[in-house]
Specification:
This is Polar amino acid transport system ATP-binding protein. GO terms for molecular function: ABC-type amino acid transporter activity; ATP binding; ATP hydrolysis activity. It is found in: Cell membrane. It is a peripheral membrane protein. It contains 9 helices and 10 strands. With 247 residues, the protein is α/β, with parallel strands linked by helices. The chain has a single domain, classed as Rossmann fold. Strands 6-7-8-3-9-10 form a 6-stranded mixed beta sheet, sandwiched between helices. The protein has a 4-stranded antiparallel beta sheet with strand order 2-1-4-5, with helices on one face. Helix 3 crosses helix 4 and helix 5 packs parallel to helix 6. The longest helix is centred in the last third of the chain and has 16 residues. The protein is globular. The termini are far apart. Bound molecules: adenosine-5'-triphosphate (ATP).
């Protein structure tokens, strides 16, 4: 059984089909990168998986359970996933440690001592041990995003969804966030991520999916997609990324 199975997923905003029949399976420990032009539906797909958006048609199964079923417990489903967005979304009035322990304590009912010990372990693992008592505005953008990823990890999710987590960062801070994602992969975390960082996608993905106008047009290994794309649209998109970098 796959960890996640998406079948025939459609999403419409104001009469415009943003997702058009997406089929995608994700296996445990697999890293799937979604690539595609701005507006192709990458974020919407992640938001549907996390049930932040309701799909108009199709199904999503997590560990064999249909989470798109109207009777599914959305909060229970979200507890099994970690999601991180482009904007760090840390609570500004809480220390890094309190940000990280909030969900384990309040949602998962872990005791304070245990939650803090786990949070300190994660902070140490990701090089932020010294920042436990700091407030978000005392951290660099890269450190804030690393803390946001750690916060999502703290509930020990089955699946991590990372939406453009490096886009808001200065180039010199991107590297440290990519390092955290690399570390998550080495730890066996199952992830779906959207990125405009093609080099990183190529390095980290097991599977690359190219979305075009809400259609999952092509999927394959990084080698297949980047070195030998099968579809002209995929080739055009990759060429446009290369051209943009030359500007
Ligand atoms: N809440 C919403 N209401 C209306 N339209 C929306 C909403 N969210 C997304 N859209 C539209 O859906 C389309 C897909 O958007 P989405 O953010 O999923 O694309 P994306 O591939 O993630 O783009 P980017 O790379 O720029 O983040 C766009 O045309 C967008 O304007």
């Amino acid at each position: 059984m796959s960890l996640l199975t998406i079948e025939g997923l459609w999403k419409n905003y104001h009469g415009h089909n943003v997702l058009r029949g997406i089929d995608l399976t994700v296996e445990a420990h697999e890293v799937v990168c979604l690539i595609g032009a701005s507006g192709s539906g990458k974020s919407t797909l992640l938001r549907c998986v996390n049930l932040l958006e309701t799909a108009d048609d199709g199904t999503i199964h997590l560990d064999g359970e249909e989470i798109t079923d109207v009777r599914a417990d959305a909060d229970g489903v979200r507890k099994r996933m970690g999601i991180v967005f482009q904007a760090f979304n840390l609570f500004p009035h809480m220390t890094v440690l309190d940000n990280i322990t909030l969900a384990p304590r309040k949602v998962h009912k872990v005791g304070r001592e245990q939650a803090e010990a786990q949070a300190r372990d994660l902070l140490a693992r990701f090089g932020l041990a010294a920042k436990a008592g700091s407030y978000p505005d005392q951290l660099s953008g890269g450190q804030q995003q690393r803390a946001a990823i750690i916060r999502a990890m703290a509930t020990q999710p089955r699946l991590m969804l990372l939406d453009e987590v490096t886009s808001a960062l200065d180039p010199e801070l991107v590297t440290e966030v990519l390092g955290v994602i690399r570390e998550l992969k080495e730890g066996g975390m199952t992830m779906i991520l959207t990125t405009h960082e093609m080099g990183f996608c190529r390095e980290i993905a097991d599977t690359v999916c190219f979305l075009d106008g809400g259609v999952l047009l092509e999927r394959g290994t990084p080698e297949q997609i980047f070195s030998n794309p099968g579809r002209p649209r995929t080739r055009e998109f990759l060429q446009s990324v290369i051209d943009a970098r030359r500007l």
